[in-house]
Amino acid sequence: MSAPPGFAELIGAMPMAVLLLGPDDAIHYANAAAERLLNQSERAMLGTRLAQVVELPDDHALARGGRGFAAFDTELRARRGGRLRVDFAETPVPDQPGWRLVTLAETAAHRIATPPGGGARAAIGAAAMLAHEIKNPLSGIRGAAQLLQGAVSGEEAALAALIVREVDRVAALIDRMEGFTDTRPLALAPLNLYPLLDDVRRVALAGFARGVRFEERFDPSLPPARADRGALVQVMLNLVKNAAEATAHQADRRVTLATAYRHGMAASVAPGRPRQPLPIELSVIDNGPGAPPDIAEHLFDPFVSGKPEGQGLGLALVDKLMRDMGGIAQYAREGGQTIFRLLLPRAA
Questions:
Q1: What is the rounded distance in angstroms from the CA atom of residue 26 to the CA atom of residue 47?
Q2: How far apart are CA 332 and CA 314, in angstroms?
Q3: I need a labelling partner for 186 at 20 to 30 A (CA). Which of 107, 149, 229, 319 fits?
């Protein structure tokens, strides 16, 4: 039994680990990236079962049946190596019954998100109190600068206006940081995504996304998600604003909102926590240039930004709110487009 013609050349140069499985469930091809990741030569892997090479996700066997399988940000163990954190996907090969492609894409190191203990709660409380204490004198400084601005002229007035702008900037930064100190559980409930998406689009077109063409690719049969409406609106506004800003230098500024139902999709929202089904997919797609390659794997970390004026808190807050809702956010560049995917659980 040999691999379908042309497959070796097709996947040999791919940067991610790719394995080709035959109808006999044995490995028939492994590219160079798979050899490096799994610490085995292709010759050693040929003819062996996938489970003999890498520890499979817990529910892998339950999701078989020709529809494929995916597990994002999951921890596996190579049989001849250490532990791996990867996006695992198994996809049927079109027009080749029984043949499947398995991809193992290494993910960036993720923060260990654990429920806050006593020390963490104390630190969060201190941060919230500090933010409050900083904002109190800021309002007084801003008021004094505004009075000064009306009483002087020329360069002095310009300096007073600068003080007002800087106070507003610091206050906005503190507002963003306060979002990380809120440990109250979100009010998760069944949510129809389409009225929410329409509201987000209207808000965007009335303000920061003027001149942007919005497109929609919706799954009309999408069931309700389990989410917090306010939190998801905040997430979507952040992503749509980023997308609109990313297209600022494009002749055809375009942002696409897309939804899909992904059968078999499962992921862990944090290392050490069990994976759960996340079949509701919501995407924000733009035709901008994407994030610089050197920060692409760290976009959801605090204080990481691809914009010169960026504070690096918007996507970190997106990540936090999605995890608080039991979902995850992902970034990708595909087909010359930037894609932010949100994966959410389905409402019971």
A1: 5
A2: 17
A3: 107
Any idea where the domains of the chain sit in the sequence? 7-106, 118-181, 189-344
Q: Which is the CATH superfamily of the domain at 7-106?
A: PAS domain (3.30.450.20)
CA distance 72 to 150: 57
Q: Are 104 and 16 in contact (CB under 8 A)?
A: yes
Contacts of 213 (CB under 8 A, 6+ apart): 252, 253, 254, 255
CA 209 – CA 240 distance, rounded (Å)? 8
Enter the tokens of residue 215: 């497109």
Task: Say which CATH architecture domain 189-344 belongs to.
Answer: 2-Layer Sandwich (3.30)
Cα 184 to Cα 13, 113, 117, 129: the distances in Å are 47, 15, 14, 16
Q: Which residues contact 342 (CB under 8 A, 6 or more apart)?
A: 235, 239, 281, 282, 283, 322, 327, 328, 329
Query: Which two three-digit tokens encode residue 268?
Result: 């862990």
E strands of the chain, at which residues?
17-21, 27-30, 69-77, 83-92, 100-106, 189-191, 213-217, 225-227, 254-261, 265-267, 276-277, 280-286, 328-334, 337-344
Measured CA to CA, the distance from residue 85 to residue 105 in angstroms comes to 9
| pLDDT per position as a tens digit, 14-43 | 778 899 998 888 999 998 888 888 888 888
- Angle, nearest 10°, between helix axes 193-206 and 229-246? 40
Torsion angle, CA of 332/333/334/340, rounded to 10 degrees? 40
Q: What does the pLDDT look like over 124-161, one tens digit per residue?
A: 555 555 565 566 677 777 778 888 888 888 888 888 88
Residues 6+ apart with CB under 8 A from 42: 29, 30, 31, 34, 35
Residue type, 105: A
